[in-house]
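Late entry, evening session. Most of the bench is empty. Finally got around to the prediction I had been postponing all week. Sequence below, unchanged from the version circulated by S.P.
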Amino acid sequence: MATLSAFFFFISQHSMLAFPLWIIAGLALGAAVGALRKNGAWLGLGAVGFILGFANIFLGSAVNAVFVHANGTYGTAVITQARETNSQLNDANIWEYDVVMKTADGRDVKTGFDTMSASLYPPRNAIEIPPAGERFVVKYIPGFEPNIAILRDESAFGKRLLVQKALEPVERAAAQVSASPDNGEFRREYREAIETFLAQHAEAAEPEAVAFYREELKRIGT
């Protein structure tokens, strides 16, 4: 498992470097199979390598996160330094992060990642990096500990982000009520949004926010 972890770590951390290696591996495999079967068409596996290498640039870190989460051991980690680079992703500068991970048996392991290579679980179309200095939950593979998956929904920073996201429909409904306080439909939508938020996030949300929205339910009535 440690060897697999090292492989997934390499292709997720160095996707551009791995790209030509995927093509070479496809060509080499195609040549070997083609020689055995005496059929040069197997060299077409080079095209498969190209496709896999291209897909890895965008999906390698997500695949790595799924692998580590499925097979790994829990630990915690802290970003010790964050550095902005001159490279860009979606018109925003890429950041590099130094990390210290504490294993389940108490050992400290130095590792790191950047904006593009961070392995975040569960995978979704959002790059959510923990704040520097704040401890977060990870999984790692014993035997190759530098390869970590950030468990955002189990970490404090991720739970805060989930709460913020869940508050968006509540705030939207509140704005409608503020625009037209006597609109019964708007008041109903606001009440339902609050009830949904409290049912799903009352334990993770700030106590002050929970208390406020419970008072809002009393205020707007049925």
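Two things to note before I forget:
The chain has three domains: 2-69, 72-152, 158-220.
The helical segments are 2-13, 15-37, 45-71, 156-179, 184-201, 207-220.
Will write this up properly tomorrow.
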